[in-house]
Specification:
Layout: E1 4-5, H1 8-15, H2 19-28, E2 34-36, E3 43-47, H3 48-60, E4 67-71, E5 75-76, H4 81-98, E6 104-106, H5 109-114, H6 121-128, E7 132-141, E8 144-153, E9 159-168, H7 172-186, H8 203-216, H9 221-237, H10 242-257, H11 263-280, H12 285-298, H13 302-315, H14 320-331, H15 337-350, H16 355-367, H17 371-384, H18 389-402, H19 405-418, H20 422-434, H21 438-454, H22 459-469, H23 473-483, H24 506-513
Parallel strand pairs: 4-6, 4-7, 5-7
Antiparallel strand pairs: 1-3, 2-3, 7-8, 8-9
């Protein structure tokens, strides 16, 4: 008799996946799950032999790919920088509308904007893996805006739909909705209805939001502060505009994670901002994802984090940002590595020119101990964004773990020379200590101590330095880092750098404090 599995949980356990993933496979990939009638909640069962056959078939035949579309930056016809920012914001918001559509594969902003320089539609389609392109133009004249848009087939250049909108500037969200609906109808997919936050920001607030989002991608101290000013100014102009609240929360978290801001100084404001964003727009999938990051990494509430990410994935199933956040900040800390890898790979497929997506994939591959592939992913990330220091650090880590010590050390020292942030100094001390340069590690520890005289050094930076030196104080400072909610410590269960601590009886106690034992 065929083995029968009588619940979603049993089916998920048999396949080695989470329940939500299995339920998604049942809808999108015809996983053989049977349903029993009756009751308020559907009862399900499956046979192991049928699941095995489905797995074999899936390996031989890749699943049918959904319809794919990329939204290019809207061309600025007025020649004003502010108008270009406005056009970028319009394209960005259309993308956010489209990622809500099940069955539509939407290329993320980072990649579609990067590919916009090549004007041949076939070239762009091949580069992004997109069958359709939305391209258009925008011109503003005082309080009016003219938007032209067309949906183009990347195989033959034919137009499936085109439209021109002459509206008041206050109708910008209505234009976004109409474009998304027209695309859905042209491609024969269903657009899920939703309530729209009816507050339309004034032009200045909208431009400030777009400028802040652009600056926030640079991850330097100056850009961090400039983006923060833009978001706060947008909020001051139009407090009920949800986007800058979300942008501010996202920015402040990354500032805390990468040592650009002290967590204690920015986390309360970040919490306030994300709460307000969701009060204003409960349908904002990316905002639910940021809430999931906060619940997990800052509150150590992993069930709450998973619930927030579940909502984010329901609202924005095609969002690369939601996928790679879920993979790195929620699944990896709980060592659900197989599903994290699957989602990180999906994020790269949706955002193939994104250094962030490739960088997060590289880190997940490090956790999976697949160092050769991790090097490939992080090398790609560095090539896509050579100015982002933290991607070079990811790449250095992969090289060292791969056994390419000389090149890895050169890459790490270059990051140190460019970014004397405390977390970089501590990480460099850890590398030197673990790769047989204890004298250098002690010098770097002294540098951290000198920094601490005049500024606040996060305890995670000292923990890394003590880790490299084999100093027992590493446990004291890891404990302090947990208390301070330094985001980096939630990866104690996963990152290879901590392998030497795992047999110490104090290590499980640290994990237990974060709900990760």
């Amino acid at each position: 008799m065929r083995e029968r599995l009588d619940s979603w949980k049993a089916i998920a356990r048999y396949l080695g996946r989470e329940v939500r993933t299995v339920q998604r496979w049942a809808k999108a990939r015809n996983l053989p799950v049977h349903r029993l009638p009756g009751g308020t909640r559907p009862r399900v069962f499956a046979f192991a032999s049928e699941l095995d056959a489905w797995l074999r078939s899936s390996e031989l035949q890749p699943p049918t790919r959904p319809v794919s579309v990329a939204v290019l930056p809207f061309v600025n016809l007025a020649g004003d920088v502010a108008d270009q920012l406005f056009g970028d914001g319009l394209a960005d918001d259309v993308i956010n509308e489209l990622v809500r559509i099940p069955g539509l594969r939407v290329i993320a902003r980072t990649s579609s904007f990067a590919a916009g320089g090549a004007r041949d539609v076939r070239e762009i389609g091949a580069q992004l893996g997109a069958a359709w392109l939305l391209e258009g133009s925008v011109r503003r004249d005082r309080q009016r805006v003219r938007v032209s848009a067309q949906l183009v087939n990347t195989r033959n250049g034919s137009h499936a739909w085109s439209e021109r909108y002459d509206r008041e500037i206050t109708d910008i969200f209505a234009i976004q909705d109409e474009i998304a609906l027209s695309i859905a109808q042209a491609l024969r997919v269903t657009l899920t209805p939703r309530e729209r936050n009816t507050i339309t920001p004034d032009l200045v607030a909208y431009d400030l939001w777009v400028k802040g989002r652009t600056l926030s991608q640079q991850f330097t101290l100056d850009a961090f502060e400039d983006a923060r000013v833009c978001y706060e100014a947008a909020i001051a102009r139009c407090e009920r505009f949800a986007r800058p609240h979300f942008g501010l929360a996202d920015l402040l978290f990354y500032g805390a994670e990468f040592g650009l801001a002290e967590p204690a100084a920015v986390v309360p404001r970040a919490r306030e901002a994300i709460t307000r964003a969701l009060e204003l727009d409960a349908w904002f999938g990316e905002a639910h994802a940021v809430l999931g990051v906060f619940r997990g990494v800052l509150d150590h509430d992993w069930p709450g984090a998973e619930a927030a990410f579940h909502q984010a994935l329901e609202l924005s199933p095609g969002s690369a940002s939601v996928l790679h956040r879920h993979a790195w900040y929620c699944l990896v800390p709980r060592m659900q590595v197989a599903e994290a890898l699957e989602q990180a790979q999906q994020a790269v497929a949706l955002d193939p020119l994104s250094p962030f997506a490739h960088g997060h994939l590289g880190l997940v591959l490090v956790v999976a101990r697949r160092y050769d592939r991790a090097c490939d992913a992080c090398r790609t990330a560095v090539q896509l964004a050579p100015s982002l220091w933290y991607l070079h650090w990811f790449y250095a880590t992969c090289l060292l773990l791969q056994g390419n010590v000389d090149e890895g050390l050169r890459e790490a020292w270059q990051v140190y020379d460019e970014m004397r942030q405390p977390i970089v100094v501590g990480a460099m001390a850890a590398v030197c200590g673990q790769y047989h340069q204890p004298g250098k590690a002690r010098e770097l520890l002294r540098e951290l101590e000198e920094m601490a005289v005049s500024s606040r050094v996060p305890p995670s930076a000292f923990a890394l330095a003590y880790l490299g030196l084999g100093d027992d104080r590493v446990f004291e400072f890891l404990d302090r880092a947990i208390t301070a909610r330094n985001p980096i410590v939630t990866h104690l269960p996963s990152m290879p750098i901590y392998d030497g601590l795992r047999n110490d009886p104090r290590f499980p106690a640290l994990l237990a404090r974060m709900g990760l034992a």
